[in-house]
Amino acid sequence: MAKIIVEKSGPLHGEVVISGAKNAVLPIMAATLLSEETCEIKSVPALKDVEIMCQIIEALGAKVEKDLANNRVNITARGIETTEAPQELVTRMRASILAMGPLLARFGSATIHLPGGCAIGERPTELHIKGLRALGATVEVDTVNDVITARANRLYGNTIYLDFPSVGATENIIMAATLAEGTTIIENAAQEPEITDMANFLNKMGARIKGAGTDTVRIIGVESLHGARHNVIPDRIEAGTFMVAAAITHGAVLVKNVLPDHIKPIIAKLRECGAEVIPVDEGLVVQATDRRLTSTDIKTLPYPGFPTDMQAIFMALLTTVDGASAVIETVFENRYMHVPELKKMGASIKTDDRCALVTGNARLKGSKVQATDLRAGAAMVLAGLVADGRTEVTNIYHIQRGYERFVEKMQGLGAKIHMEE
Ligand code: EPZ
């Protein structure tokens, strides 16, 4: 079983280039199913999840030209032979559900096996179903076999209120609404930048979407969509990960290919801890050399709040700073699976439901720990950078799902880190 070995590394220095955003490229790849023409996508991160999405789209009958070494994927969804995504692939990646909206809109049917819960929560889909039903689809949920089947001769625009600003539900409904008859309005929509990136791509395909990135999105349906070219936005969570790596090691790192507007909460919280974050032409410099870092409190919220995907990563930093920090996780009901792993390393953290109290100044010691989800895996590596001795991180396929060349990029900053089979 492959594992990542991390030794105490001293301050990180140098520069790192951020890859394309995983959570933008997955919905964008799904959106290519809405047209029979070729879509050319660039800045595609070479990730396991991207490869799975390529396999799903290919299994449906589309032509996929994958060139991940050059971060490019071309998709031509002509000759789709089935609207049922293959179960063995879908159950490996929750984002497969994003194929439902496009398949339903273009072909009038979609069958997706439910991936089920995962380490961070039960991951329900009732908001996706509520949205597609509001557009006129008949949606059946087979809870015995965990399959969702949607059918619709035609989709019709409607106004849909999301009880929670679900990222995936917002994306699925937008994609389905692009080919519906009439206008759809999504209220209390998720506002993540990855949704805006997907909407920009869809508008290049001829869709008529306004308000993406706000809590109210308006989609005027069109007859069909054509091919398009698109560059995926940088991954704000990968950027945040390397910024925290610079802070926890008291180093100085230039993070390139980053959009500061997308990571305001991360910048604010790093500054509250006492790190310097300096905007420069090529990106951001995080400077924490010889700086005593202090505690701050974190409350995760839907965008533009502090991102839940950064909670574990930031918690690793908070175990090492002066003072105690309060963390509240409001987005997922079970996103503290990394806490026992950090405590194995000597961290002092108390959790109660969605709250965690992190005592600072922990002298972390190298240990055998596991990645419980992809962001928690990154958190364990960051803790290993400052822990005395050797840390072994297992279950690293989580990390490979969401970070392109993670070990290599860390090595480029001076981290003592390598992979072992
Ligand atoms: C997306 O997941 C991301 N994944 C997640 O990133 C991210 O953590 C999450 O958004 C929140 O930002 C992708 O974009 C591929 P949600 P998604 O639907 O769409 C509840 C990573 O690390 N909910 O916004 O599944 C749900 O239970 C991954 O890259 C419902 O109640 O997230 C959760 O508590 C992890 N009913 C909350 O909303 C629904 O029908 C947020 O879920 C759907 C969701």
Detail the topology: elements first, then pairings.
Layout: E1 3-7, E2 13-17, H1 22-31, E3 38-42, H2 48-59, E4 63-67, E5 72-76, H3 87-90, H4 100-107, E6 109-113, H5 126-134, E7 138-142, E8 147-151, E9 159-161, H6 167-177, E10 183-187, H7 193-204, E11 208-210, E12 216-220, E13 229-231, H8 236-248, E14 252-256, H9 264-272, E15 276-280, E16 283-287, E17 298-300, H10 311-318, E18 325-329, H11 338-344, E19 348-352, E20 355-359, E21 368-370, H12 374-386, E22 390-394, H13 397-402, H14 406-411, E23 417-420
Parallel strand pairs: 2-14, 3-13, 9-10, 17-18, 21-22
Antiparallel strand pairs: 1-22, 1-23, 3-5, 4-5, 6-8, 7-8, 10-12, 11-12, 14-16, 15-16, 18-20, 19-20
Kindly summarize this structure in a few lines.
The protein has 421 residues and is α+β, with helices and mostly antiparallel strands.
Count every beta strand, where a strand is a DSSP E run of 2 or more residues: 23
Strand order, main sheet: write it out: 21-22-1-23
Low-pLDDT segments, ≥5 res: none
- Give the percentage of residues in beta strands: 15-25%
Give every kind of bound small molecule, once each.
ligand EPZ
Instruction: Report mean pLDDT, rounded to a whole number.
Output: 96
CATH topology of the largest domain: UDP-n-acetylglucosamine1-carboxyvinyl-transferase, Chain
State the major sheet. Answer: 4 strands, mixed
User: What is the CATH architecture descriptor of the largest domain?
Assistant: Alpha-beta prism
